[in-house]
Amino acid sequence: MFTCSFCMETRVMAPYRERSLALLKKLIEEHLTYEPEERRIILYSLSFPIRRDHLRILEFMVENKLIASLPSIRLDLISEEILELLKALNQKTITIAPESFSFTSQRLFFKYVKPCEWFEEKVEAVLNKGFNVKIYLIYGAPWEEMEAIAENIECLKRIIGKAKRMHRRIVVSLNPLVPKTSYTFPAFRHEKCSRVETGFQGLPGESKRPCREQRLRY
């Protein structure tokens, strides 16, 4: 399974557990028995879809004319098949969490050690299917210098440019790296937020104070 270094759940909630396809179908059927008018299903998972059964549960919901919401999807698991299924389930926005476009942070976060071009391709595939995109990024890591902030900004500009040309909306959510005793970064002194804000001043959007408002829309 995936063990991102900043993630509390993979340590506190270990070991990995999964409900069977049969049980998931049963839960949905029971829901429809008691609430036949409520057709919306929310799928909560830290890593979805990593198994064929995950696609089969989406197919099951499509067959039953349900509306589904998948709060987040792993970038390396995005495929045309799953995008078509999510579109059929009436999902409008795909949420992804690259966390950082800086190679240094990617390596230390144990997540997506990939160049900006790889992220561009993944996001473009999502945009081509008619989805809007929400992107989660982490800021405030103790090793980050202005160079890392600049890398994030440059890659975001390229991704946002693609979305604008396709008349799609992108929301960028900036989230601080919060120290927790149960994972790799138990304690460190946060960099001043003004440093991050200075780096993001050149990025267009509704918010010019990302550390305070923590959300940018394009």
Automatic annotation (TrEMBL):
GO MF, one annotated term: iron-sulfur cluster binding
Alphabetized InterPro entries for the sequence: Elp3/MiaA/NifB-like_rSAM, rSAM, rSAM_sf
Organism of this sequence: Thermosphaera aggregans
Database matches in Pfam families: Radical_SAM (PF04055)
Residue ranges of every copy of the Radical SAM core domain listed in the record: 1-218
TM spans (from-to): none
Protein name: Radical SAM core domain-containing protein
SUPFAM superfamilies in the cross-refs: Radical SAM enzymes
